[in-house]
Design goal:
The structure is a single chain. It is built from 7 helices and 9 strands; from the N terminus they run H-H-H-E-H-E-H-E-E-H-E-E-E-H-E-E. Strands 3-2-1-4-5-9-8 form a 7-stranded mixed β-sheet, sandwiched between helices. The chain has a two-stranded antiparallel sheet with strand order 6-7. It has 217 residues and is of the alpha/beta class. The protein has a single domain, classed as Rossmann fold, CATH 3.40.50.150.
Length: 217
């Protein structure tokens, strides 16, 4: 396990270097703008709001160019209805987010840096598939939330796991649904809601899967 983590650290750095260099000629919004209109974004963010009370703190992990915040959260955050934190591991994106959204707390950090119960609700979209393993990353995120965790998968869970390191320099893992449930249950959480969202109406052929985790009573 230790060796795998060391490999991931090196490979992650190489991936970030590739992204940083590619964005010298390409704006992050162009690279990350694909599927911005996909209905799964609104459906997932609606779940985040449904579990958020006035004055709560929302933490989004891996916001990329900040499309979900801009499209679905910013107006209410600017009105002071809730606090918003972003964890973005890519330095250039973190700097861009900080400039574009001064009302948000932007941290150039990865999910491994989450503090215990740092937020009331945590929102994670298309992030866990890029982690080397779920046994380490999912418990960290669950521990960091007080009330709920909303996760959207671009590679929906299956019966059999596929741990795959892409030649382009990133993990593209498919996790077993039973494994996800077992990890959450072991941490005292349960999946209280889950659904698939097709993207035909937005011109996308990608199907996303969203899960909402809440603490067991």
């Amino acid at each position: 396990m230790t060796q795998q983590k060391e490999i991931m650290t090196t490979q992650s750095k190489e991936l970030f270097d590739i992204w940083e260099n590619s964005w010298k000629e390409q704006k992050p919004t162009e690279f990350l703008g694909r599927n911005r209109a996909h209905p799964s974004r609104k459906e997932a963010t609606d779940q985040v709001k449904a579990h958020t009370d006035e004055g709560d703190t929302i933490l989004e992990i891996g916001p990329g160019a900040g499309f979900d915040y801009a499209d679905y959260f910013r107006e209410e955050a600017q009105q002071g209805k809730f606090n918003y934190i972003m964890y973005e591991g890519t330095p250039r994106l973190a700097r861009s987010l900080g400039r574009r959204f001064p009302e948000v707390t932007v941290r150039n950090k990865h999910l491994q840096n989450i503090k215990e119960e740092e937020a009331d609700v945590i929102y994670v979209r298309c992030v866990f598939e890029h982690q080397p393993n779920l046994e380490d990353s999912l418990p960290i995120v669950l521990t960091g939330a007080k009330k709920a965790v909303v996760v959207t998968w671009f590679l929906p869970p299956a019966k059999v796991e596929r741990i795959y390191y892409h030649p382009d320099g990133h993990w593209n893992n498919i996790y077993a649904k039973d494994s996800i449930t077992a990890i959450a249950n072991a941490q005292g959480w349960q999946c209280s809601c889950e659904f698939y969202t097709d993207g035909e109406q937005s011109g996308s052929n990608r199907r996303y899967f969203t899960q909402v985790f809440t603490r067991k009573a």
